[in-house]
Task: structure prediction
Amino acid sequence: MVSPELAFESLLNGLLIGGTYAVAALGLSLVFGIMDVVNLAHGHMLMVGAYVGILLFAATGITPLLGMLLAAALLFGFGVFLQRVLLERVVDKGMEQPIIVLFGLALVLESGGRIVLGSEPQRASLGIPGSSIPVGPAVLSFPRVVTFVVSVALIVAVWAFLKYTTTGLAIRATAQNTDAAQYMGIDTGRIYIITLGLGTALAGAAGALLSILFPFTPYAGWSYLLKAFAVVVLGGVGSVIGTLVGGLLLGVSENVGVLFIGGGYRDLISFSIFLLVLLVRPQGLFGSSGGGE
Result:
């Protein structure tokens, strides 16, 4: 029998994890909503970001909160390189070719990670002092509170970038109608480069944050890709606010669900939510035509 106090604590901790899930999904949502590309390597890019945080912390003791900046910068550069060298040749030629390219990239990252880093789970620590935070009958983990605050700040920053900057407005215009955007003088090729760079940077940042909370192996990419898909389906493609709400819902569902069916079934919960929303409301709870908000 689960006590109400334990259920309340699991709900709050689920909200905290959900914020980071939302960051993990936001990049996938933006790339799909703006470029019409399903980035099957997104989870593996997140895995790379996690290892950047883990290795930097192990080598120097620098907190993954700063490692997150390095991971985001490295993954942004990787996204720009990927778009210019590979995807630029296949975007706008149907969905199949980008999917094949990105699926192959995911396998390369997973195999490379296994060879270089091994298969043993690794994780980082927050690296800054702090103690658990009591909230009524619940006790919240300090690292989860910190990662939640950072995650929400990242999401708000992306929302403000899309809403108030010239580049953000160009990204939204491209998402709504690529041909019209080109007619208006927007360089959509440059917008695609920025979008993929932003999407991969968010994956890297989310990975570094999650490395504080969970151990990682090179095989973790598929699991986090599934969670990101579930969040995007919940929140609706291209919706920043919807992605945040979707992440919170997934985090709560997972955390409360494992109380009843066990911690080994987190991915089963994510996949069940993914399928249920696809069946009942395929456009998502906050579905829009895409393009960010």
User: Anything to note?
Assistant: The beta strands are 133-135, 138-140.
